[in-house]
């Protein structure tokens, strides 16, 4: 009852217009909204937005054009997961949620398309140097009306194109105004269109806490983008954003989730607040932070802010700016990949950031994944006896993941495991074989030596670089170039000729 | 050696398991088969499917192993493999003898039958997961949502359960082209399975609704726009979304082309 009272009070004070929406709830029952919906062609509502004193008339854009512009602007947001919430259908409304999340398609960059990932608007009053939508950029601008977003979400969802909505936005007029529009959209989607699927929404730093709280009751996941790993980086590249403004809503959501857990223990049917937890994302490679710094930030976010996920986004240079680094080799995808691997180790494998990296070796090994790298540096802890080692020790063996470790622990209760059983269970023996024994024996005679294991773990084509010149896998240096199997491409040759290295 | 020959369905296999226990068969020397292949020295016993007996077996399995394990056994039986009934039968025998905790029926993976059941359940479960992701509904003139796909495993009932929960107020139909089966869900009602040949062809002849092409085009455009060209990786895309599913999705089909 407490929540309903607050909601009503808040709406009455700040959003007179939502009173009308409340009336609509009583009129639109079940799927009646579809029968009453206008045809696509005449649905373009006239929206006028005041941005920095310039009035933008949005009505001339078709829905297709808006979708193109606003999906294009949203694509740099990484999070597209629909996991974390298990919600059965209620027999009346459209949608349910599956805890593991569902990917519905994959785009040509190999990333999953799970949610309708769009911006509410790409108008923005901020001038973040890395962002395509910054106010100093001359790009096509568009704004969705809440009704358009709801309609697209419903129609895509019922055709099984998407699992729900991911709504982010540029800052229009002010953070409060932007958050209000987003709240209004979600309110409409949940209460008028009766959408019961997954909704991920961005919390806008600087928006009133009441609005963030209200939005949290309508969303399954919320996220506030940390943007850059350190406050210095943020000051340099996003002068309008402040670290404190970003962390404040993050803390508020964290507290809200905790309070809600207690409420749910007392009242089973209390409304759920951000049931899927919160996440954030950082841009990798735009500023000079090391992997060690980034991983430490991620670890403290998991520990202190109880985040569900931290996403890493390899920096894609979309603006020309002297403050931004030149990336002749394209976005740092391998670095991003290594960070994700380490992130998994932090969350599921019981590793800590200082075990994987330290100040002397602040970057991940390019050739070995973080777990292999840790293992070859800690050979004193190996080999591990499969039939006796604890679950935690099994998790630290390269080639054994969470699932296979669980299956090993379960299977060895009833029988002694052999190497052939491990293969069937799903252990990647190619990697694990150097680190394990079964009944006291290794699979075949191997040496427990760093260089021997590394030589065998790295793939055939890259093995040549650990040659006779004394080069080591341990840390890349400026001179580690000549013997990669990857040949320079035509673009590289062009860059050399034109001096644009 | 006793061989119970039953129908290729959950009901058939459960009835055969009931018969094996009813007749106090020696489980080490008893086989349950769903195919017609003959075994040397086998004493063949045909088994008629009996829903009452099957229900009894399912009730026992649910009580002994829990819902999760029961679903995995059911999933293993959706595969087309010849030895699935035997694997499930021997897994059940092992489970009823050792009484594992709920969710732990398939833990004993050094046993070849349990391992096989696990593999089959995993294989079918993966396909079910993929179909749940990649099935695309198209709205017909009457407002019915219609989807079709080729399924290696007989997972249509599982799909119907999933989508009936998701779209309770929608009329929708899913067609398994290979098996000529169709699951039909009337809005607000219970779903059912039926033969699909005539019905499926009739539905195919029906035109699409006015807005269908517009939304398909919108989604195609969305998929195009959401990709970051600097990260282009078609191999990864194909790995994540196998080609046999791509041909049934509208974002990979060419404009105006039927899925």
How would you describe this protein?
The complex is a heterodimer of chains A (501) and B (259). Chain A is of the alpha/beta class and 501 residues long. Chain A has two domains: 2-268, Alpha-Beta Barrel (TIM Barrel), CATH 3.20.20; 370-475, no CATH class. Chain A has 19 helices and twelve strands. In chain A, the strands form four sheets. Chain A has a six-stranded parallel beta sheet. Chain A has a two-stranded antiparallel sheet with strand order 1-2. In chain A, helix 2 packs parallel to helix 6 (175-192) and helix 10 packs parallel to helix 11. The longest helix of chain A is centred in the middle third of the chain and has 24 residues, at 243-266. Chain A is globular, with a radius of gyration of 26 Å. Chain B has 259 residues and is α/β, with parallel strands linked by helices. Chain B has two domains: 2-129, no CATH class; 135-246, no CATH class. Chain B contains ten helices and eight strands. Chain B has helices spanning 10-22, 51-65, 67-76, 84-98, 112-134, 156-166, 197-205, 212-226, 234-240, 243-246, and strands at residues 2-5, 30-33, 43-46, 138-139, 145-149, 172-176, 181-185, 192-195. In chain B, the strands form two sheets. Chain B has a five-stranded mixed beta sheet. In chain B, strands 2-1-3 form a three-stranded parallel beta sheet. In chain B, a hairpin with a 4-residue loop joins strand 6 and strand 7 (181-185). Chain B is elongated and about 65 Å long. The termini of chain B are far apart. Classes of the chains: A alpha/beta (501), B alpha/beta (259). The interface between A and B is large, with 58 and 55 residues.
Largest sheet of chain B: 5 strands, mixed
Helix/sheet category of chain B: alpha/beta
> Number of helix segments of chain A?
19
Oligomeric state: heterodimer
Q: Please describe the biggest sheet of chain A, giving its number of strands, its sense, and whether it closes into a barrel.
A: 6 strands, parallel
Please write the CATH class name of the largest domain in chain A: Alpha Beta
The rounded distance between the terminal residues' Cα atoms of chain B is 49 Å
């Amino acid at each position: 009852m407490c929540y309903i009272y607050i909601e009503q009070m808040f709406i009455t004070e700040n959003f007179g217009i939502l009173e009308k929406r409340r009336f609509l709830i009583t009129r639109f029952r079940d799927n009646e909204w579809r029968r009453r919906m206008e045809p696509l062609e005449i649905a373009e509502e006239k929206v006028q937005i005041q941005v920095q004193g310039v009035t933008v008339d949005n009505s001339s854009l078709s829905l297709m054009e808006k979708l193109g512009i606003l999906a294009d602007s949203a694509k740099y947001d990484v999070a597209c997961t629909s996991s974390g919430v298990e919600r059965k259908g209620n027999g009346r409304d459209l949608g349910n949620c599956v805890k593991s999340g569902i990917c519905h398609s994959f785009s040509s960059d190999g990333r999953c398309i799970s949610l309708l990932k769009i911006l509410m608007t790409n108008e923005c009053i901020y001038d973040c140097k890395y962002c395509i939508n910054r106010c100093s950029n001359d790009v096509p601008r568009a704004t969705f009306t809440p009704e358009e977003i709801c309609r697209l979400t419903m129609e895509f969802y019922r055709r099984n194109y998407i699992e729900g909505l991911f709504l982010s936005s540029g800052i229009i007029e002010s953070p409060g105004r932007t958050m209000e529009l987003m709240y209004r959209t979600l309110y409409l989607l949940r209460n008028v269109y009766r959408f019961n699927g997954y909704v991920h929404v961005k919390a806008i730093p600087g928006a009133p806490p009441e609005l963030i709280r209200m939005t949290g009751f309508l969303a399954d996941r919320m996220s506030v983008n940390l943007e850059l790993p350190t406050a210095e980086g943020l000051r340099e590249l996003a002068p309008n954003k402040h670290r404190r403004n970003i962390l404040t809503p993050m803390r508020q959501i964290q507290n809200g989730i905790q309070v809600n857990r207690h409420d749910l223990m007392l009242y089973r049917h209390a409304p759920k607040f951000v049931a899927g937890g919160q996440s954030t994302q950082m841009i990798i490679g735009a500023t000079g932070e090391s992997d060690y710094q980034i991983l430490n930030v991620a670890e403290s976010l998991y520990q202190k802010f109880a985040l569900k996920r931290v996403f890493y986004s390899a920096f894609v240079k979309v603006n020309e700016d002297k403050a931004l680094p030149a990336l002749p080799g394209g976005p740092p995808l391998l670095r991003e990949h290594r960070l994700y691997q380490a992130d998994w180790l932090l969350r599921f494998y019981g590793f800590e950031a200082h075990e994987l990296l330290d100040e002397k070796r602040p970057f991940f090994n390019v050739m070995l994944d973080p777990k292999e790298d840790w293992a070859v540096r800690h050979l004193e802890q190996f080999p591990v006896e499969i039939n006796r080692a604890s679950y935690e020790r099994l998790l630290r063996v390269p080639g054994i993941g969470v699932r296979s470790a669980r299956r090993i622990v379960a299977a060895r209760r009833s029988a002694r495991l052999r190497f052939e059983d491990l293969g069937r269970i799903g252990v990647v023996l190619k990697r694990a074989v150097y680190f394990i024994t079964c009944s006291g024996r290794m699979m075949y005679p191997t040496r427990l030596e760093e260089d021997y294991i590394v030589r065998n773990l790295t793939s055939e084509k890259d093995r040549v670089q650990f040659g006779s010149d004394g080069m080591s896998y341990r840390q890349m240096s400026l001179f580690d170039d000549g013997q990669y199997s990857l040949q320079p491409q035509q673009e590289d040759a062009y860059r050399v000729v034109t001096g644009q290295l | 050696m006793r061989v119970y020959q039953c129908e290729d369905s959950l009901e058939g296999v459960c009835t055969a398991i009931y018969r094996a226990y009813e007749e106090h068969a020696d489980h080490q020397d008893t086989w349950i088969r769903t195919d017609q292949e003959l075994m040397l020295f086998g004493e063949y016993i045909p088994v008629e499917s009996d829903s009452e007996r099957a229900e009894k077996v399912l009730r026992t399995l649910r009580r002994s192993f829990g819902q999760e394990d029961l679903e995995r056994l059911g999933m293993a039986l959706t595969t087309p493999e010849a030895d699935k009934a035997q694997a499930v039968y021997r897994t059940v025998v092992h489970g009823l003898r050792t009484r594992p905790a709920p969710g732990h029926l398939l833990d004993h993976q050094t046993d070849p039958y349990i391992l096989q059941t696990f593999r089959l359940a995993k294989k079918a479960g993966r396909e079910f997961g993929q179909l749940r992701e990649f099935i695309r509904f198209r709205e017909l003139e009457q407002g019915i949502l219609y989807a079709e796909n080729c399924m290696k495993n007989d997972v249509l009932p599982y799909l119907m359960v999933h989508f009936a929960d998701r779209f309770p107020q929608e009329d929708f139909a899913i067609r398994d082209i290979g098996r000529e089966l169709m699951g039909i869900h009337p809005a607000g009602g219970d779903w059912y399975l039926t033969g699909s040949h005539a019905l499926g062809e009739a539905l195919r002849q029906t035109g699409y609704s006015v807005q269908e092409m517009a939304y398909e085009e919108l989604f195609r455009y969305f998929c195009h726009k959401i990709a970051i060209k600097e990260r282009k990786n078609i191999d990864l895309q194909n790995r994540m979304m196998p080609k046999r599913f791509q041909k049934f999705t509208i974002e990979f089909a060419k404009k105006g082309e039927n899925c």
